Amino acid sequence: xxxxxxxxxxxxxxxxxxxxxxxxxxxxxxxxxxxxxxxxxxxxxxxxxxxxxxxxxxxxxxxxxxxxxxxxxxxxxxxxxxxxxxxxxxxxxxxxxxxxxxxxxxxxxxxxxxxxxxxxxxxxxxxxxxxxxxxxxxxxxxxxxxxxxxxxxxxxxxxxxxxxxxxxxxxxxxxxxxxxxxxxxxxxxxxxxxxxxxxxxxxxxxxxxxxxxxxxxxxxxxxxxxxxxxxxxxxxxxxxxxxxxxxxxxxxxxxxxxxxxxxxxxxxxxxxxxxxx
Length: 277
Fold this sequence. Notes:
The chain is α+β, with helices and mostly antiparallel strands.
């Protein structure tokens, strides 16, 4: 692609104070010599990410995703509590959400949503730390199991249960929806009807073309969070067709999209980054 590109991990960042200043380097090269920095994933490297972002601001270097430049958070993906608040503020449709302690979730969520509803860890990844109690017994057991996680600093949200049998993942790169896939949802068998005594299989494959409404919703959701490269998860309620954004994944995994849609996601990303220089 004739694009000069260096990749590095946060462990390769270093600096030495000299002449009352700091020269941040990666593998010995001054970060200021680059034209652009794309932070793929922060994870637990908050200190290094903050150091890199602040240095880039000081030397006038653009950082992707844009959320880093806005100073909203050095941690991306955002905690779901913050992400949801920002989406709602931008009028992006999301399932009704309650944020509070586990005790408050146990006491108040059943009255807000009735059963079943969904509980998520605010920093869960790739579908982990997600539960859906169907009754008070399951809720009490769940709270007992995860209460230690709350003591360790984990936070939780509760959301209404949307009866959607399929979910859509739209890959957004630089304000453009480049591809989308669909997958069956986790708890679809709770509400879909059997056909000839068995549950019909879910659909797994590409969405081509991507429905225009999903394209716009995904782009708007990513834009509202200042995420330039995002996997936006959308569901449609089976009976009404109403759309909801479940989450906006920064640093999304794209293996399934590449395989199902037959596109080179890395090339799409590099093309976008190169257009900013």
